[in-house]
Every structure is written in C-alpha cells, then in structure tokens.
Queue: 3 jobs
Job 1
Amino acid sequence: MDRVNLPGGPAVIPDAASRPAIVLLFARLREAIGTAQEHLTLPDEVRDVAGLLACLRARGGAWEAELAPAKPIRVAVNQEMADSATPVRPGDEIAIFPPVTGG
C-alpha cells in the first residue's frame, strides 16, 4: 500500500489489486438494468472481458437479457476499446455500451 500526504494527515491508498473494478453502463443498458455504475470485486475466475460479461449475465434478469451474446454491445477497459480477450483487473474502469450510429 502507498501512503500519500493529505490535509489532515497521511492516508493509505489500497493496492490496485484490492480495489474493485468500476463497471459503467450507458444508454439502453443503464435504463434496463437501472444503474449507471457499479463497483465490483472481480471473482478470481474473471480475467478478461468475456469472463466479466459471463459473470454479469449469470446474475439473470436484465443483466442476462441485455448482455446476451446476440445483443450488440461494445466494451472499453480504461477508456480503450476492448474485445473479449482484453484482460480486466481490479481497479479497472470497464464501460459497457450499445454501438453508436450517427448521421
């Protein structure tokens, strides 16, 4: 753990491995699931985007329906577009959103 000096005294910053991942949901996903973000402690078996999506789908309900393999979604890890093999780690920011089209 790192220590930083803040007004009022030093603070301990937890190691990245002990921080939860932040899952951000956008557009129809946010509407259907009912939340814009969640702090998630990654289970040991979740090592990549595919594992994360499977873990979230296993919750059932709107999670399963909206993240179904047939539904088009995009994922970014730490603000970089990701594919199913992209690693996810504790402390990462994972954004899940539908594809965007414009005109």
Job 2
Amino acid sequence: MSATLNISAPESVVVHFEPSKLRMTRAEFYEFCKLNPDLRIERTSEGDLIVMAPTGGKTGGRNFILIGAMDRWVRSNQTGKGFDEEYIANGAELGWLIDPLERKVHVYRPGVAVEVLDDPETVSGDPLLKGFVLDVREIWD
C-alpha cells in the first residue's frame, strides 16, 4: 500500500478505515509515515489515522515545558512512562488535556467522570504520579 496526503488546514484530520475492508499493517503504517515525513501521524486503537498539522512556535514552547517537567519526574521517580494522546482507552491511568486558550485542564482517569480544573496554578499527579506537580502558569504564558 502506498499513499500520500497533503493537508493545508491547521487542524487534525481523522481518516477512518472500515476494518473488514482496509486496515494498514504495522509495516504499511511505517511506510505511510516515511512517505509523509512532515506530518504528525498517529494510529488509534481502532486503526484510524489521525493526521495533525505541525505545531507552531507558541504551542511548541508549551509542549517543551510540559515534556521537560514530565521527563524530569519520570527519570527521577522511575515508576512509569509518559505519553501524549488517546491512552486511557489503551490502559493509561491518568491523562491531562491542557487547554492554554481557555486556561483549563481536563483530567482523565478510567471509570471516573472527567474533572475540569479552571485556571489552576498547578496540577498534581498524585496519587498515581506521587510527588509530581506541574506548574501550569508557565504554559499559560
């Protein structure tokens, strides 16, 4: 299978596949990503593709702060791993959706309603990420 996709819109695009008719193997997905090196491409647990436009400077800076803080904690604590998307459905026990435009943090946990924090200064990972506190004021700026 070989395909390319050009996207000019700044939003993500979800490409749905009917599982019984078309599904990329891992090797085909790898080749698809190689053919489109400028795109951020993920595959969902259902086999759909999510194609996202590259982040801009401000978003990239926010991501850098967040990933750096999480990386420091993961390396010092050594009790888990950090990821970035639809992971609750695949077994993750905690997820944060950080919305810097609305200054909200949506906290996802399995079996619990989504908790929305309105303009918090910090977000705690306790009890799962014992001792990890993210200072979101850096991300708001």
Job 3
Amino acid sequence: MRIGIIGAGRMGGGLGRLWAKSGHHVMFSYSRNPQKLQDLVDETGSHGRSGTPQDAARFGEVLLLAVPWHAVGDALAAAGQLDGKALISCVNPVGHSGLEVGMTSSGAEEISRLAPGAIVVEAFNTIFAGLLHSSAHHFGDSPATVFYCGDERSSKARAAQLIADAGFHPIDAGPLQNARYLEPVAMLLTELAHSQLLGSDIALRFMNPAGPTESVVSADSLAKSFAIIFAGTGDGSKDSQTLAEDFVAHIPFNRHPVRGRERFDTQLKIFRSAFSNFQCNIDEVVDDGNHVAVRWTWSGIHTGMLLGIAPTHRKVAFSETHLLRISGGRIVEDHVSANLLDLLHQLGAMEFAVA
C-alpha cells in the first residue's frame, strides 16, 4: 500500500517506519526541517521517500495526518484537494487548556469539515508516540489496542489493516462521531502519564469474554466467517469464535427460531444434504460495527429432500439477505430475508402446484 504521511514528527515518523518495515511504501512530508525528512527516508530505505504535502497526497492510496492541532489548517491547505482519499487522523484537538473540541463535535469531525472531499478515519490517537519507536507496544504476547472510527467501510478496513501492520490490535469504535469519546480517552491517558506519573509507556488493551489475548474481529470478518459456516467449507474449529453459544436464527421457512449454535449446525447439515456441489458466495457486506447486513448467493444441484420436495436434479442459485447482530465479538442473532417463491419456482414446485 502507498501511504502519504503529512507530519514528520514522532507519530508520523514512527508509524512510517513501522509500515515501511511491514512492506508498505511511504512518503514523508510537512516538516520545517528538510534534514528530518531525509533522515526518515534513509531509515526506511527503498520503501521511503519524501516530498511536499501535495506530493504525499498524490502519492498515497491512504494518507496519515499527524500534526499538532494548531497546524491542521495549514497542513491540509498545503496538501490541496483530497477528494476520495482515505485520511487517517491521529490528531487530538489539544490546546493550552485541554481539549478545544469535545462532546458536541470532535477534532476528527472538524478535520472532515476542513477537508470535505476526504474520507476521514480516526486512529492512533490513544497511543503514545514513544511506543512506536520500540518493541514495548507488544506487551508480551498481547499488542496494545488501537481504536478506529469512521463512516466509510473500505477506508476503515484499510485503517484496520494498517493498525495491525504496525503491530497493534485494531478495534472498530463505530462511526466518525464516536471520535467525541475517543479523544477524551486520549486526554485521560495523558493525565495518567504525566500528572499521575505513570509514564508514557502505558497503553490500553481491550479484552472480551473470549479471553485476554483473543482479538475482537470486525463485523465484516464475522460475516465472511458466517458464510463459510453456512457453506460447510470450514473445518468447524472456528465456529465457536464466530457464533455465540446461544445464537438465534430467524429463518423464513421455520415456524420457530432456531436457538443454539449446535441446533443451528444440525439444521444446516440437513439443509446442505439436499444439494450436491453446494457453494456460497458473498455479494455484498454492509456494517456499522454493531449490525452487519450480508447478501449472499448459494447454489447447488437439488439431489435430496428439501421442504418436502423430492430431488429434481435442477441447478439452483438463490440469494438471501442476513441481518446479523454482533455482541461480544460474535454473531448472536440472524434475521434472514429471502424470496421463497423464487426458490420454489427454480425447483419446479410452483409448476406442480398450478397443475
């Protein structure tokens, strides 16, 4: 991935080094000291280069804004048009008296207004820059958590990947508006580090009921894992990481919900046994961090009993939409929407009914 970095301080420089080390190509920009830019390029080797903020904006598939709050306007003006660019901001709106923006807006939202063409994602704003310059952020086997928030799924996915590539644990904090809650968290960490003398080698680690070292995966990843479970193409070892034990499925052709992961698995096996060459392909995924809608198309040859219909040996391709509710890093509920008349028509059952 090509990353344009606007701000060559400890945050921008530290993340640039980590990303270059993981194979990304970075361009450093926006420094009063040209030698600092050259030093960063020398450290990152063939994966690093330098230029103006406008050069970095043109170069990067993703941009990182890593400047002090008071320099945001100047840095964005120097970058020029950012239409369609994913812009990761790690800027906290800190002034002499603390947060200058909060609760009714956020620094990230203000940056989005200043760069209306950019797709802003907030990330890395709750991590101290010093952790980027050592291996301390691994904290043994458990990497520190980096929260990210934004309104556009593909840009958030890129941010999550870059967080992981920097050696941290990404957690989706929802829409960009939730930066209003992340930025005060950054201030709390600053207070703990300096006023409470805990030092700046501290970080947050998000934990869930799966255990202290388990990652809470994104809704998008859960949806893809659910499609694998539905198709029966996995080995079953990760089912418990995807579906909650008390998972509930609301299926159109069932009079009552299917309750429990084991009962759902049994019903799926019965369903799939009615087909040979059974496959399932995802068409679209839309998520907001708490709910995810996934539309997929399954296909197969009808070679067994299905809904009381004897084998027709017809090829079937059928689309369904699943609204999934996520809690505790797992899918806890599935509401299925599908056109059963289309399925019956493909099986020839409608023709038999008319006859």
